[in-house]
Design goal:
Blueprint (H helix, E strand, L loop, with lengths): L2 E2 L10 E8 H4 L3 H4 L5 H8 L4 H22 L8 E3 L5 E3 L9 E7 L2 E7 L4 E7 L7 H7 L2 H9 L2 H22 L10 E3 L9 E4 L10 E5 L5 E7 L5 E6 L2 H10 L5 H7 L3
Parallel strand pairs: 1-12, 2-12
Antiparallel strand pairs: 2-6, 3-4, 5-6, 7-11, 8-9, 10-11
Helix pairs in contact: 3-4, 6-7
């Protein structure tokens, strides 16, 4: 399902592009990729206490800039973001006419990115913790319907269903752009193994149910994710961020990476 590609300049209005990236594969490129970040992003990266968190932020945000740069045909370092009151980033007014919407999530070694030109988008990915069923969280924050479904499951099925529910809810509230100001029990998502991925119901304050589409995402073993888009009939394209793609984009934007790729390229 996930395709490696080096030709991804076009983002048709009716498509949603999902990208997955393995952080370990991009680690050797950290010194160059971090130069793409703006001053405020550099400052934010410096505030992370753990080096792994700092590197995860830098690699995720720099590759986001590379992909946006290709879609917008702009140098990645020239792109500027604004943020709404809940912290969701969006393109500054200079690029608003492009209508490119995007979202990013990371967990463990995986980064998930989503792009579309029409409607809102939210993505979430989580590394599955097999030691935790999540029932205590579900009882406090999920809807009664979701909690009762989870309670009926046992063992690995219960754990997987919890993370399925959690990522779907996170993706939905990220698509809305209002974060946890939206109570998680205001809407129901499918969680059982036999249920197709979908939003089952929502309060009218959240809009019209038929406007939204929920997509199940499995980026790699031991991870679950979800994407939610405000265009129910969108065509999906699934891509993998590879070293070859990053090399091509870095060279296109004249970043000094030749010595790094010569030393560490896996192509």
């Amino acid at each position: 399902m996930w395709k490696a590609t080096e030709d991804m300049d076009l983002l048709p209005p009716g498509e949603v592009h999902l990208w997955k990236m393995n952080l370990g594969e991009m680690q050797p490129l950290f010194p160059v990729l971090k130069t793409l970040l703006s001053a405020d992003e550099q400052a934010r990266a410096g505030r992370f206490y753990f080096q792994t968190d700092r590197q995860r932020f830098v690699l995720g945000r720099s590759v986001l800039r590379l992909l946006l740069g290709a879609y917008l045909k702009q140098h990645p370092s020239s792109i500027r973001f604004d943020y709404n009151e809940f912290g969701k980033p969006f393109l500054r007014s200079k690029w608003k006419k492009t209508t490119v919407q995007f979202n990013l999530s990371h967990s463990g070694e995986v980064v998930l990115l989503g792009f579309t030109r029409a409607g809102a988008i939210g993505v979430d990915v989580e590394k599955i913790d097999r030691k935790h069923s999540g029932l205590d969280i579900a009882k406090r924050f999920f809807s009664r319907n979701e909690y009762e479904k989870l309670e009926r499951l046992e063992g690995p099925l219960q754990v997987e269903a919890f993370f399925k529910c959690w990522t779907r809810k996170e993706a939905f509230i990220k698509a809305h752009g209002k974060g946890l100001s939206i109570p998680l029990n205001w809407f129901d998502v499918a969680v059982l193994p036999e249920e197709p991925p979908q939003i089952l119901s929502m309060k009218e304050e959240l809009g019209c149910l038929s406007d939204w589409r929920l997509i199940h995402v499995e980026p790699q073993q031991a991870y679950l994710g979800a994407a939610v888009v405000q265009q129910p009939n969108a065509a999906m394209a699934w891509y993998q961020v590879t070293r070859n793609l990053v090399e091509k984009l870095c060279r296109r934007f004249e970043l000094p990476v030749g010595h790094l790729f010569k030393a560490g390229s896996s192509s």
